[in-house]
Amino acid sequence: MKTLALVLFLLTYLLLILLPKYRTQTAVVVAILFVALGILPFNKVLTTIDWNVILMISGTMGIVSLFIESKMPAAMADFIIDRVGSVKWVIISLSLFAGIISAFIDNVATVLIVAPVALNLAKRINISPVYMLIAISISSNLQGAATLVGDTTSLLLGGFANMDFLDFFFFKGRIGLFFIVQLGAIVSSLVLIVFFRKYNQPIHLEEKEKVEDMFPTYLIIAMVVLLILASFIPNKPSITNGLICVILLQIGLVKELLINKNRNALNVTLLQIDYQTILILMSLFIIIGGITEVGVINDISRLFLKFGNGGLFTVYSLFVWFSVLVSAFIDNIPYTATMLPVAAKVAAGMGIQPYILYYGLLIGATLGGNITPIGASANITTLGILKNEGYQVKARDFMKLSVPFTLSAVLSGYIIAWFIWL
Asked: What are phi and psi of 147, to 5 degrees?
């Protein structure tokens, strides 16, 4: 049974790489096979799925859709552009702005928010938007690990390690991932300054976006505040954070339907939720539950211990740089979901707390996806936007900026996380 589970698991990864258009179908079919073949008992299916993560993703995506429709993100971008003097600083400011937004909403949504502003700017001053959009994309990916709601990988870590919103700021008496990511953002910003040093054209906006509805902004603020407050509730239900996000989405939809009289709100908002990602995640929870059930996770953890020879720094380094390498070529969601239980098993085998390995995993997996155009959904979305505008971006052109940006961010996070948990 273990061999069968391992073969199906490896086949899943191979098909996810070779058939990216059929990721959802691949994950769902393999999950069904895991249950049908008895690798994961049927009575454990529902308990294997992390419903808190699923509800949080669903609710957050819906709220973000309302937030984008309100034009608030575009208005905020206009505010930034109007207060800097040159194209160089506009690009850097928009990239940092994308990072700030991405710490609280999905990376792809962030790109969809900020990219139109950059495209409009490029047309006004007659320059190529390629590297502007690449900078925005990789900056949004960088900040995904900063907070609990910043990226699916963060939600996975929060659910697996029982970490709440505030734990990403301060955890176990130490600074959390948020501040580690900010250090990476500062270091990688220096890369952007050097890369765009010749973009000195002056810029000024004449037409600006107007915010159509402040209520979605209040929903975003309420979500963050309520997730923080929920962190202080002892022995709360496991789906508390997910319920907060879903209930706030329902409030937003009721307001759109009854007060704004927007009959299309329900269809438009619900269609913006990425149901394919949700199905993939649910399927992955089942697949990982199956390989855990038959002992594959234990075998993988022993392999890491063997290569690391039991030394914590070596094992930690393996988690970071192996994650960078893998995430550069495949989606970091299935990889992170797989490796979290491996990190826990490795830590248990070494007799240590697992958090240094969790941090190393998230730093490598979240940032590593920035190296190549196919390593992160936000990058793929960015290339799609550029293609629609008539720009074909080659991998080497993308990596001219992404490689130094990513390596500088990973290296700084790698070093600071080690000294925090040393």
From this structure: -135, 170
